[in-house]
Write a structure and sequence with these properties.
Order of helices and strands: EEEHEEHHHEHEE
Number of strands: 8
Strand content: 25-35%
Shape: globular
Radius of gyration: 16 Å
Number of helices: 5
Structural class: alpha/beta
Distance between the termini: 32 Å
Largest sheet: 5 strands, parallel
Length: 183
Amino acid sequence: MTALLRFDRVALRRGGRLLFEDLDLELGPGEALQVTGPNGSGKSSLIRLAAGLLESERGLVERSPLGLADDTVALDRELPLKRALGFWDGSIEPAMDALGLAALAAVPVRLLSSGQLKRATLARVAASAAPLWLLDEPLNALDADGAERLASLVRQHRESGGAVLAASHLPLPGEWRRLELTP
């Protein structure tokens, strides 16, 4: 099995504080790992490190092409939703449908609610065709329907050979291996 994400003896320091060291993890096709822990334990930093947005103090991080869903919406706020998502992928309709966004296709991004923006961010990742999904607090602002739709997308992605690394202080629906970080 080829790893889609691998950490080998990784250490990460932020703001002069060591968040973790000698961290080993590997995610292969079809796998999902949820990183848990209290606020400040390094969950979001681990996601950013996996995405290549942070550098480790030591150790090796190897990653496949990835899609990242975090607090950055990464959509032009003035464009209608479908057009804004189309910047990332021209065939966005299946992901919009899967997340219940089809009726909002013509609505400017700036008029969307927090939950709708979270769904749009997840649709951007789902349409990316990236084998590795990185999700930082994916349930934030989602209602029960949004959480169910996310669980379905994650299941489909895993069944098609993708992997998911998610950081959340809330239990995620579905089957996940867990890694708990402590401050």
